[in-house]
Specification:
The chain is an alpha/beta fold. It has 2 domains: 200 residues, Medium-chain alcohol dehydrogenases, catalytic domain (Quinone Oxidoreductase, Chain A, domain 1); 127 residues, NAD(P)-binding Rossmann-like Domain (Rossmann fold), CATH 3.40.50.720. It contains 9 helices and 17 strands. The chain is globular. The structure holds zinc ion (2 copies). One zinc ion binds next to helix 2.
Length: 336
């Protein structure tokens, strides 16, 4: 079994992942081979497994919140060395020459490849990644450190980009809809920046509301509730289209509503007056390497503490089910 590894693979969408022994991937030119120390479970993984995103490369090893240690390097890799700790995010490769890449918006690259979607990811003991898209990580000494860092690689990064597009630290009163992995990281960043956080959870989810208050939210309630003050901006991390007009109705003139999700149920019709007065609705797609270069050192410096629940690799389906059913406080992380 020396050159084989355990992996949880998706053979067909809508089916549970299957535990398999498959060959360890070997690094090609420009790539590194990593032993996976931890891999976070993201809501996007649910969308991939459920078939809500249309181009997974099957059979697929999902997972794009990878913390790993470099085991070997492919030809031409100078930036990383055997023994380095790195994080592998969703953005796995971009072309470098399309209009978006040239304009510094590689997140929109028309031929981008994505970890755990069009490239094999981290629900396995080993993976390979393009060295140019790995983020060096410091302070990883124990399995617990790897577990804590994993959610920063997507929930943190996409959350950070969502926060930045909603005005960064400019909004004084920041609403966050959907208080899961991304929100619990972002709330800490916002509070550290002096912003007032208003947390909206599933109706009646008093556990998530208490969690939000513990992280410094000034108010927490159900997504059907009206906040005590109008919001300057709102971030959406729940894949629920009904929340767009609701969030707009609570945002002041000129305020932004930004969705961080890759997939959302349809947005219902709503009256123009909710958008009028220069309110805006926008979405975040993917991430750029610059987002990681900015956010990961910031997360280490603040520092941001992640709340995680560890699962053995074999229990990936259970972790996905717990995420789907809203049974998690914070983030699920697989520990191969
Ligand atoms: Zn491109
Ligand atoms: Zn993700």
């Amino acid at each position: 079994m020396a050159n084989k590894m355990r992996a949880m693979r998706l053979q067909a969408t809508g089916q549970p992942l299957v535990l398999e022994w498959i060959p360890r991937p070997e690094p090609g030119p420009g790539e590194v081979q990593l032993r996976v120390l931890a891999c976070g479970v993201c809501r996007t993984d649910l969308h991939v497994v459920d078939g809500e995103l249309d181009e997974p490369s099957l059979p697929l090893v999902p997972g794009h919140e990878i913390v790993g240690i470099v085991m070997s390097v492919g030809e031409g890799v100078r930036s990383l060395h055997v023994g380095s700790h790195v994080g592998v995010p969703w953005l796995g490769w971009t072309c470098g020459h399309c209009d978006h890449c040239v304009a510094g918006r590689e997140n929109l690259c028309t031929s981008a490849r994505f970890t755990g979607y069009t490239l094999d990811g981290g629900y396995a003991e080993f993976c390979v990644a393009d060295a140019r898209y790995c983020f060096p990580l410091t302070g990883i000494q124990t399995p617990g450190d790897a577990q804590a860092a994993a959610p920063l690689l997507c929930a943190g990064l996409i959350g950070y980009r969502t926060w930045r597009l909603a005005g960064g630290d400019a909004p004084g009163r920041l609403g966050i809809y959907g208080f899961g992995a991304a929100a619990h990281i972002l709330a800490q960043l916002a509070v550290a920046k002096g912003q007032s956080v208003y947390a909206f959870t599933r109706q009646g989810d008093t556990t998530a509301q208490a969690f939000a208050r513990r992280l410094g939210a000034v108010w927490a309630g159900g997504s059907d509730e009206t906040p005590p003050e109008p919001l300057d901006a709102a971030l959406l991390f729940a894949p629920v289209g009904e929340l767009i007009p609701i969030a707009l109705s609570h945002v002041r003139p000129g305020g932004a509503v930004v969705s961080g999700g890759i997939h959302m149920s349809d947005i219902p019709r709503f009256p123009y007056r909710l958008l009028w007065q220069e309110r805006s609705v926008s979405s975040v797609a993917n991430l750029t390497r610059q987002d990681g270069d900015e956010f990961l050192p910031l997360a280490a410096r603040l520092p941001i503490h992640t709340e995680t629940r560890a699962y053995p690799l074999e229990q990936a389906n259970q972790a996905l089910a717990d995420l789907r059913e809203g049974r998690l406080t914070g983030a699920a992380v697989l520990m191969p």
